[in-house]
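Chapter summary example.
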Amino acid sequence: MEIMEQDATAPVAGKTPQGHISVVDDDASIRSALKSLMRSACYEVEAFASAEEFLASEQLSDTACLILDVALPGMSGLDLQNLLHSERRHIPIIFITAQGDEASRQRALEGGAVDFLNKPVRRAALFKAIQSAIEARY
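The structure predicted for these 138 residues follows.
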């Protein structure tokens, strides 16, 4: 898997109590890898190439956890977080990025993000963040 480092820790797997995990990343290979990983752990998952595509989808109201890239064409991941917050949509967000600077990390976490992970994302860290996100929502 291109973006994931192998580690011995098994994921905490299972379906979300309600809703899907949504992945927003402009890199098709990362979307595909995350989608496969989530499905292998029995999560329902949908993937989107942009924030705008996610916002226009039916998944917006059914998303239990959002895995979101920081750098996206058009609306950035941080801008999407702000928009969702301003619309009072309480979707737990896990940011992933290849360009993680401290200012972006701080902004994301202060905005309520569950976690801020650097690529390549470690499986155990991602599944731990997903579990925290789901628990925060329900």
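To summarize the output: The CA atoms of residues 3 and 30 lie 6 Å apart.
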